[in-house]
């Protein structure tokens, strides 16, 4: 009996999706760090990620994506190498964030780096399991959740607040100027 939504699938296909997701996640973050300032970058990144996502899904559905987990033998060399490769990409991303901060606030950049460290550590945990329900698998998912939580609360929310503060500061100044102009006209 399988533990997947699709009855014909084994634990290999969900593990393949995991590997595909890790590649998209790590390369997407690295690209954002390197090229975020470029014109039209968000649209281009979105198109590239959609293309690679659709391509990866098609490869998995057609059985052309490399095996990642084989029942009875466990993880494949492809899965293990992929985890180490994505860990290296996350490590490079951490280095770049420390060299070229993304925001003016150190705490926000450190939170981003800590979240990437969690995502990086996931790779080392996810190269040691023999069964998808084992301790290493659960630990890896908890680390991934922790990384996502740190990313949300330590980087995304504070950075969004910083952007909103900048936007509304400028908007409030404009409203004050308009009010002063209106008051000056009323006095005259």
What are the low-pLDDT stretches, counting only 5+ consecutive residues below 50? none
Helix content: over 70%
Straight-line N-to-C gap: 85 Å
Question: How are strands sequenced across the largest beta sheet?
Answer: 1-2
SSE string: HHEEHHH
Percentage beta strand: under 5%
Task: State the assembly state of the protein chains.
Answer: single chain
State mean pLDDT (0 to 100 scale): 89
What characterizes the major β-sheet?
2 strands, antiparallel
What overall geometry do the principal axes of the alpha carbons give?
elongated
How many whole angstroms does the radius of gyration measure? 22 Å
Number of domains: 1
Kindly name the structural category: mainly alpha
Annotation field: number of helices:
5
Based on DSSP secondary structure assignment, what is the total number of beta strands?
A: 2
Folded structure, characterized:
The chain has 188 residues and is mostly helical. The chain has one domain. 75% of the residues lie in helices and 2% in strands. A two-stranded antiparallel ribbon has the order 1-2. Strand 1 and strand 2 (74-75) form a beta hairpin. It is elongated and about 90 Å long. The protein starts with 11 loop residues before the first helix and ends with a helix. The mean pLDDT is 89.
Summarize the structure.
With 188 residues, the chain is mainly alpha-helical. The chain has helices at 12-35, 41-61, 77-99, 106-125, 135-187; strands spanning 69-70, 74-75.
